[in-house]
Amino acid sequence: MDKMDQMVTYLPKFDREKLPTIASITAAVFVVLYAYKKTTATPKEDEVPKGLKPVPIAPGRQFLFGHLLTLGKRPVLQLQKWHESIDGPFFKVYFGARQIIMINDPQIAHEIFVQRGAFTSSRAAHTFSHNIYGAGGRGVVIAKAGKKWKNSRTLALDILAPKFVDQFDDVIIKETRTAADALIRVTETNGSINPLKTLQLATMNIITLTAFGERFPSTDDPMFRTLVDLAERTLTYAGIMGDTGAFFPKLGWIDVISGRRRKLRGFVKEFRDKPLAVLIDRARKSQNDCLVKTIDMMKEKHELDELDVTIILSDMIVAGSDTTAVSLTWAFAILVRYPEIQRKMQSEIDTFMAKEGRLPRYEDRDQLPYTISVQKECMRYRTTTNFGVPHVSTEAFEYRGYYIPKDSTIISSMYSMHRNPAVFPNPDKFDPERFMSNTKSMYAAANGPLENRDHYNFGWGRRLCPGTHLAEVELFNVFVSVFAKSTIEPTFDAQGNPEYPNIEDVKAGGVVVTPVEHQVRFVPRVL
């Protein structure tokens, strides 16, 4: 019997209440030993070939923890400082044992993720997202590159293509107009509102109507609340900072002893597998057209089984509902400070309505260039995700004289990219005019040449968000519905002074960053 077997046999003799203390002490010992080994040995993959340069390392790296303790409360701010001070196209940070290459230049991101996408499009191993949620690599968003991922992504691209999404245009319009009315109604009843939940209901209903053929009547609906929890908690658990096993791989067993993995598996079972099984079954039995039936007709062609279908639909809920609602919440928190910009959008919408006798639809977007520019500037000014989902290289390669090892984690820093003055002059100024010369659709911009990109929230290359068109149609219709009917105004304190949302701080949510708690007012327009 080896020492590990002896330990496993001996553990049950302890009082279970003492296990957390024992685990903590044991973890500390193993962390130190592991870190010592990592810092005294040079892995073969880090050996830089002759004639190439290593990726520069950010200052402040510490024994054992790497840069984890030097990042501060808002890591993006420290990373931004390093982007500005380090000489080179990128730099490397250490999160414990994990080495991460950070990019803030879209040209470099394009060259690495698009032009070299054949070997820079995989994902990192992650205790939750890959092993538990992804069942070892299924799904679209977080699966490693491979045949299963390619088949799932091909299916997702088919069912989320513009010609397919546009079949549900009336559904999207109805839900967004319902949301606009609700924002006004709650403001009139309560005096103000945090719009996030109302927007989540709209974006979730759009996903569930298109996917399953059913919707939820209110934010109090039990199934709606379950799916919102699924989306929010999945995005939290899947964040790069939420996987200590990736920082110290030799200590992954602590998650088992502490019960964390069991809890994560329980979460997936209760909040994803069970409710989606109900929704999928009802969709198959209903008379409504929906994506479930389309997927059923296509899954054999793409060699996908029932678990693949569940995870693909879950990916749509997680990536397609919460992120869009958060983007809109940011937009409204920003625009409450700019009444003159709201008036210009309203004037544009009013002019269209006077001419056509109806609200604009997405197909009319070319007649609302200023409104389109405001949407784009909102997404640049406050990004929904600081880092997106990391890419991983499946082979070593050279880039501009630097050596990038195999299995490198590579991140495009969305926060820093959108504040890169070489790309966006005067980046701290909220200025929709900067996009008036590029009002083509975000879908076209994201899938076109680099010089036509407007922002980078939808990712890069083979990992570009397949739901880009759906998200853009939702954003457009919410903007039109809200600003045709209302103006967003601040609340007031006891002395009658306006209180604006704090858009300098964020509520961290793993992959997604949300505005901190705030209230605004949706005041009906007097036409």
From TrEMBL:
Keywords: Heme, Iron, Metal-binding, Monooxygenase, Oxidoreductase. PROSITE patterns: CYTOCHROME_P450 (PS00086). SUPFAM superfamilies: Cytochrome P450 (SSF48264). Transmembrane segments: none annotated. InterPro entries: Cyt_P450, Cyt_P450_CS, Cyt_P450_E_grp-I, Cyt_P450_sf, Cytochrome_P450_fung. It comes from the Eukaryota. Gene3D superfamilies: Cytochrome P450. Heme binds at C465. GO terms for molecular function: heme binding; iron ion binding; monooxygenase activity; oxidoreductase activity, acting on paired donors, with incorporation or reduction of molecular oxygen. Its cofactor is heme. The keyword Ligase does not apply. Belongs to the cytochrome P450 family. This is Cytochrome P450. It comes from Phascolomyces articulosus.
